[in-house]
Amino acid sequence: MAAVATLESNKKEIVQMNRRLTLAASLLGGLAGLAGFASAHNAICDCYDNGDDTITCEGGFSDGGTAVGVPMRVIDESGKVLIEGTMSDQSEFTFMKPDGAFRVEFEGGDGHVVQIDGRDIEE
């Protein structure tokens, strides 16, 4: 009888352990899925100096998505918005280079903001 009781007790422990492992695997799988979703489309933006007092920025997303219509801002060092616009049908934004220090912001949505310091923009 004692052997049967021990066997039943072990069986219950194994079932509970399997349930815990299944739950843990489901949670880990869900977290992995969320991590993949969160990184599915990182915003990408790069700007270059055209050498004619204009700057062109090109944008997109890491999943291959275009940046058509994405809001763009050029902001001075005090935080004042100097220029606002959107990415073109070619996912480009060209603007006159401002005097003084500035940064460019690519507003990719869902918290995806790329900021580029004007000092980092080269020909």
Written account of the structure:
With 123 residues, the protein is an alpha+beta fold. It has two domains: 40 residues; 78 residues, Sandwich (Immunoglobulin-like). The protein is built from one helix and seven strands. The longest helix is centred in the first third of the chain and has 37 residues. It is globular and about 35 Å long. It starts with a helix and ends in a 6-residue tail after the last strand.
- Under the CATH scheme, which class of the largest domain? Mainly Beta
Beta fraction: 25-35%
Count of helices? Answer: 1
Which fold name fills CATH's third level, the topology of the largest domain?
Immunoglobulin-like
- The average pLDDT is 79
Tell me the series of helices and strands, N- to C-terminal: HEEEEEEE
Residue runs with pLDDT of under 50 for 5 or more positions = 15-39
Q: What is the level-2 CATH architecture name of the largest domain?
A: Sandwich
Note the overall shape.
Answer: globular
N-C termini distance: 86 Å
Q: How many discrete structural domains?
A: 2
The residue fraction in helices comes out at 25-40%
Helix/strand class: alpha+beta
What is the alpha-carbon Rg in Å?
Answer: 27 Å
CATH superfamily of the largest domain: Macroglobulin (MG2) domain
> How many strands appear in the DSSP assignment?
7
